[in-house]
Amino acid sequence: MANEWVTLAQLQTANARRNLEFLQTREHELATLPQNAAATEPLLFQAAEGGVRCRTAGPPERWILGEHDAAAESAEARRRVNDADCDNGTLIVCGGAIGYAAAAAAGRVLAEPRLRVVVIEPTPARVLAALLMADLAAALSTERLHLIASPFDPAALARTLAPLSLDSIDALVISPELDNELNAGEMLTRTREALNAAHESRTAILDRFRTAPRAESSISRVLVVNCWRNAPGDLHLRGIARAFESRGVKTETLYLNRYRMDAAASEFRCLAEPRVLAAVARARPDLIISYGYHAPQFVSPEAFEAVPARWVQAVSNIAYYDREQYPGEHLFVIEKRLIPMFEARGYRGVHFLPIMADFAGEAPAPSDGRMPVVMVGNSLALAPAARQAFRERINNREALLAAIDEAERALGDFDAHLNFYDYLEAHPWPQLDGPDDEYAIFRYLLSQSTAHRRRAVLERLAPLGLALFGGDWDSFLPAGSPLRSCLKGYLPIHEEPRVFAHGSIFVNIHSIGHVTGPNMRFFNVGGMGAFQISDNPQFSCYFEEDAECVFASTVDEFEQKTRDFLDHPEARDAIRSAAQQRVRRDWTYHNWVDAVMSEIGGVLL
Q1: What span, in angstroms and rounded, lies between the C-alpha atoms of 551 and 540?
Q2: Distance separating alpha carbons of residues 181 and 183, to the nearest angstrom
Q3: Residue 398 belongs to what H/E stretch?
Q4: In what order do the strands lie in the sheet with 532-534?
Q5: Which is deepest, 371, 426, 454, 504, by most CB within 10 Å?
Q6: Which has the closest alpha carbon to 126: 208, 44, 69, 225?
Q7: In whole angstroms, what is the distance from residue 512 CA to residue 446 CA?
Q8: Which residues touch 459 (CB under 8 Å, ≥6 apart)?
Q9: Bridge partners of 357?
């Protein structure tokens, strides 16, 4: 940006790229801001000595920063934020000085682990300007820095602050560009009144919940809490919702953001709870269902106890780290070997129930055989940065590092009979530093060893016409791997059924964490009436071996059976037809709902 004036839409900065990429990756609500924010106020920007000037295009023309001295005005904005007396509480900043005040707020958030800062701008254009001018990604990731656009009247402030679940407001500052419009003392009084209104609304909702009748067994309304938009868990929860709806049960879905929850769990719960309570008040559910995330991550104990509904969580093996459960919450795990692990953490009412089919057609999907062999699935390997961070974490513990390296090698060898959980029990870790270490090792081995064993099988199948779909293979495979020529890239979840029109044989290689319960691919392939060769022969309890599914126990067996069935399409047709009939009978989410109702004593009305 030279000395000419540029519009908000023309403003290009390194901070803009970092912030907007971060917001898109996190699926943050601010990620949609650039689409229409510039139209809410016609801002113009110009480079100036010591900073950037900003005014509106007019008429009438109005200065926001730099009318007299951009450097002095931006320094004053930063000073006010930095000098605000607010230790480990909540600071409200009215106005962001096109990013200078917001940058100071971000610095305080990063330096003070218990401080929350809310920057309120009068227009979305000014919020976007802050994102373009200041490096805010790290502070936004804490979920303790909030950028919002709102008029400064009490009603608007009440609507703005309610979703933030603020306990109190300890201090408020006015950025210099709003000095002629706002009075700090008056604004603090009005903002505290707005906060009190938000608290009163929450109290009223909880009081209504406490006095609402509680059905002991009948289920007529279900709320699905979905944290898995555009991910596999989304398919499971959609399948569950459809199963309830087909029984005449009224079902509503609330979407929450797992990326932000994983990054800052307790802070994000403050943002999630108002949305959950509003959804409960609107839907009046008898049952709340979630997958992989559950009540302690959504609401406080007080809110959980007040809500007149039962809570059910389905858990994948990657949720092994979860250590909190509210009394009365039902837990369904997809792997029996997780049950004693959860019970050791104090969980009660833990049940085994496998993932079931997201897709189940009425007839086998016709295939043109364009892709002789297909694998749809990631390697599951951790990203290079995550692998490096894990190894740096334990780098000074030589005995532990050696034990993990040996485990990764042993578990990464393809052996359909090797039991991950037995291995963990038989090989206690030396130099362990608490339960967080234990989970980090579990996740590392689950991911890395699964990737190695999948690579071992798939490299043998590559010459047979393998098409490999998945988004993480490129960063895992070495340069010379024959799988590189097989890569088809990431396949969006909603497009997965289309590959069934082109594949002849679908290969399924489970993660090492699937010992008693299959993965989603196992039932989805059968549900679409496609032909499958899978590892883990113990899963013949779900599909009859050689009649509904073909199993392989070694790499050699995978290759030989793939070659044999490529030459016998009539045999594939018989098996895939039988598999689909079995899925439609036993392994859809209609069956899943029946199993859950049986365990919790629920009756669908």
Answers
A1: 8
A2: 7
A3: helix 398-412
A4: 487-489, 466-469, 371-376, 503-508, 532-534, 550-551
A5: 454
A6: 44
A7: 6
A8: 481, 482, 483
A9: 588
Q: What's the pLDDT tens digit per position in 248-305? A: 999 999 999 999 998 899 999 999 999 999 999 999 999 999 999 999 999 999 999 9
Q: Examine the pLDDT at 221 and tell me if it is beyond 70.
A: yes
User: Can you tell me whether residue 38 is helix, strand or coil?
Assistant: helix
List strands edge to edge, sheet with 221-226.
250-255, 221-226, 287-291, 310-315, 330-333, 350-352
Nearest to 349 by CA among 303, 320, 315: 315
| Residue type, position 498, single letter | R
51 — pLDDT class (breaks 50, 70, 90)? confident
Q: Give the separation between CA 558 and CA 462, rounded to whole angstroms.
A: 12
What are the E-state strand segments in 153-309?
171-174, 218-219, 221-226, 250-255, 287-291
Is pLDDT above 60 for 161? yes
Does residue 221 sit in helix, strand or coil?
strand
Cα distance between residue 317 and residue 432, in whole Å: 21
> CA–CA separation, 108 vs 458, rounded Å?
50
The helix (H) or strand (E) run that includes residue 503 is strand 503-508
Give the C-alpha distances (Å, rounded to integers) separating 123 from 60, 128, 190. Answer: 17, 9, 19
Determine the Cα–Cα distance for residues 505 and 288; give it in Å rounded to an integer. 38
What amino acid is encoded at 345 in this protein? R
- Spell 197-208 as b/e; 16+ CB within 10 A means b: bbbeebeebbee
What is the distance between the alpha carbons of residues 133 and 15, in angstroms, rounded to a whole number? Answer: 6
Task: Look up residue 368 and give its two tokens.
Answer: 């043109």
**What sign does the CA torsion over 388, 390, 394, 398 have?**
negative
Distance CA 376, CA 589 (A): 21
The residue assigned the tokens 């104990």 is: 301
Question: What ranges in 92-231 are assigned the alpha helix state H?
Answer: 100-111, 124-133, 137-141, 154-161, 184-211
| Claim: this prediction has a pTM higher than 0.85 | yes
- What are the structure tokens assigned to 589, written together? 């989410």
Q: How far apart are CA 535 and CA 551, in angstroms?
A: 5
Band of residue 493 on the pLDDT scale cut at 50, 70, 90: confident
